[in-house]
Amino acid sequence: MPSIKILDKEFVPYLSEQTIQEKIAELAIQLNKDYEGKKPLFLSILNGSFLFTADLFKQITIEAEVSFIKLASYKGTSSTGNVITAIGLDINVKDRHIVILEDIIDTGKTLHHYLPQLANMQPASVKIAVLLNKKEALQFPVDIDYSCIDIPNKFVVGYGLDYDGLGRNNKAIYQLKED
Ligand code: 5GP
Ligand code: MG
User: Fold this and answer.
1) Per residue in 73-114, pLDDT tens?
2) Which of 48, 101, 151, 178 has the fewest C-beta atoms lying within 10 Å of its C-beta?
3) Ligand 1, closest atom to CA 105?
4) Is the pTM of this model over 0.85?
């Protein structure tokens, strides 16, 4: 696979479409088993998770719902920063089994700040499924229940993930080229 250029940066192939799809298929099998009879609500975090969510949800064979929220993270003066809900939940999640779908966990800040808000809505359970897990980058405690692929602490694009808004429309995932 050739490298790609997005704006000023070059990215090298890192995870093939086949690898990504295989890992998603494995996750779907696991979720179909774990959530049988529970009518889970898959809660996808926009924007980055939209392709992951679509490909995963197509392989969910049990009764299930999907919904979307958009969280924006701002660097404030405090070290923890702020996470605001740009598009919120439009359904009642009380007593529902929720599976959060995230494209990538980096510092953990976004989910660490959002989870208490979700807990306030009294869901029956909340678990987190991520496509990519930058384990070494974690700074805010978040328990990841389902993780497809562990990756090093390097910037990646493609398959929903962007660089300055671009690059989401790649079937594979690319890593920032080191100089
Ligand atoms: P966290 O709150 O865990 O630090 O970061 C979560 C969000 O940051 C992800 O959902 C994603 O939007 C963005 N992010 C983190 N690492 C990367 C990366 O390597 N590439 C891209 N494109 N986005 C990332
Ligand atoms: Mg994201």
Assistant:
1) 765 555 456 788 989 999 999 999 999 999 999 999 999 999
2) 178
3) 3
4) yes
